[in-house]
């Protein structure tokens, strides 16, 4: 088959497809509209979302205070500062443990509220982690007070 006749055949085919599309006998496949992703808190009220945010911020601040208190205490011990003498480096861990204690108590108080106001329950692992974070400074302060 000569090249010229092949080109004419392709052009005829393209022109016939063009005409069919123009007359709407053959339509292009329509693209499906993209579905919008659903937000995890779409069914929750603004108050429930606010309580959840406060709950998680309390958990993170309690954990951060405990970790920084531990790190500062370890640095003070490594520097050879005795625990009985007042020093600025020793005051930091005690202050942060007080912050961790207060945020831990607030976290324990707000956990039932987070369950009550939400329609869907928070994940169990998150709740267990938050409760462990909240109880840890209480146990730490009790042990340090018992030791002396």
Structure description:
This protein has a domain at 46-147. The protein is elongated, with a radius of gyration of 33 Å. It has four helices and no strands. The chain is mainly α and 148 residues long.
Using only CA atoms, what is the Rg? 33 Å
Taken from the alpha-carbon principal axes, the silhouette is elongated
What's the story with the biggest beta sheet?
A: none
Broad structural category: mainly alpha
N-C termini distance: 103 Å
Portion in helices: over 70%
Strand percentage lies at under 5%
User: What are the segments in which pLDDT stays under 50 over at least 5 consecutive residues?
Assistant: none
How many β strands by DSSP?
0
Mean pLDDT: 84
Q: Could you write a compact summary of the structure shown?
A:
The protein is mainly α. Helix content is 72%, strand content 0%. The protein contains four helices and no strands.
Essential attributes:
4 helices, 148 residues
Give the arrangement of secondary structure elements:
Layout: H1 3-22, H2 46-78, H3 88-117, H4 124-147
Helix pairs in contact: 2-3, 2-4, 3-4
